[in-house]
Amino acid sequence: MSTATTRAPEGRYGRSSDERADRTLKVLGAVLGAVFLLVIGYFGYYYIVQNKFSGELISFKTTESAVQVHLEIRKDAGAAGYCTVRSQSEDGAEVGRADFRFSGPDTRIDEVVTLRTTARGTTAELVGCHAD
Predict the structure, then answer these.
(1) Using one digit for the tens of pLDDT, what is the confidence trace for 10-30?
(2) Are 111 and 59 in contact (CB under 8 A)?
(3) Closest Cα partner for 101 from 83, 126, 124?
(4) Does 62 share its domain with 25?
(5) How many Å separate Cα 22 from the centre of its chain?
(6) For residues 29 and 38, what is the distance between their CA atoms, to the nearest angstrom?
(7) What are the residues whose beta carbons fall under 8 Å from the beta carbon of 119, sequence distance 6 or more?
(8) How far apart are alpha carbons 122 and 30 in whole angstroms?
(9) Domain range holding 34?
């Protein structure tokens, strides 16, 4: 006994909607993928090539009225700039904020700075570094 098929004969009614949807999704995926790669490339270029001044918070030590912050600064030779550091108390209130300037011919600066606070700080955060 033979079984009846529920499919339309091949090529009789043109392309199926599934094939059109697949092609549209492939084109859309390729376009979005290309845009994504361009955006990642732009930000990568800016971060690696254009970024002339950056910093990293290595460690910190708190006292009743200050926070000692160990910073590592990477910059172009001769570039000058500043890094903003802040501290918060246990309840989340900001108890200190200051800008620390760095300049000179070195491309890497490893320095401990002291941030004065209005109360005991429990954290230290490097808000950001900016070139002049």
Answers:
(1) 666 666 667 777 888 999 999
(2) no
(3) 83
(4) no
(5) 35
(6) 14
(7) 89, 93, 95
(8) 48
(9) 14-50
